[in-house]
Amino acid sequence: MGRLIVIEGLDGAGKRTLAGKLTAALAEHGATVGARAFPRYGQSVTADLVHDGLHGRLGGLSQSVYGMGILYALDRQGALTDLRSDLATHDVLLLDRYVASNAAYGAARLRQDASGEFVDWVRAIEIERFGLPAPHAQLLLRVSATLAAERAAHREHTDARARDKWESDTALQVRVGAVYDGLAAASWLSPWHVLDGAATPDLSALAATLLG
């Protein structure tokens, strides 16, 4: 059974870039690597509903933290068979966002911290009720909300993809970052590795650690 490694962080932290580079570093250590990203936009009806909610097209549902949380959770539950298959056929399955994203963003919207009720609810729904596999390790790509916003704005310009309401809310992003810090400090669901998103990490050493 392969190891489930998750990359977490603010919108614009550079998770997609890190995923590509870490995949190469893991392969250099002889590991076979599968990769997925959540939400599964364009692949899952539930994920596409998430997208609509983030852009204000689901009426009052998008204002419900628990309603959006269920949509995120259902998107992952719908991928459970694929996740199990990937873990059975690869040494590492690398995910761009997973359960902790739901916990961090929902808690931040409710102005709760990492020890709050919403974080416990996400764990109960996604891990215990839906049976999603717990990560082997989680990587927090830590950047300031200001830097994340600058990167997201640049991506919006270069990719012609409009930022959603959460990406554009700097105050929310600050609170999300604080919840992520709390989750990492508490080793929520697994050990966490905190990486400086404004620096260049030693990915070869990180890959060795993750495989060790």
Automatic annotation (TrEMBL):
Record-annotated Thymidylate kinase-like domain positions: 7-164
SUPFAM superfamilies in the record: P-loop containing nucleoside triphosphate hydrolases
Listed name of the protein: Thymidylate kinase
Gene source species: Actinokineospora iranica
Any one GO molecular-function label of the UniProt entry: dTMP kinase activity
Domain of life where this protein originates: Bacteria
Family, per entry: Belongs to the thymidylate kinase family.
GO CC term (a single one): cytosol
Biological processes, Gene Ontology terms: dTDP biosynthetic process; dTTP biosynthetic process; dUDP biosynthetic process
Entry keywords, A to Z: ATP-binding, Kinase, Nucleotide-binding, Transferase
Organism phylogeny: Bacteria, Bacillati, Actinomycetota, Actinomycetes, Pseudonocardiales
PANTHER family documented for this protein: THYMIDYLATE KINASE, UMP-CMP KINASE 2, MITOCHONDRIAL
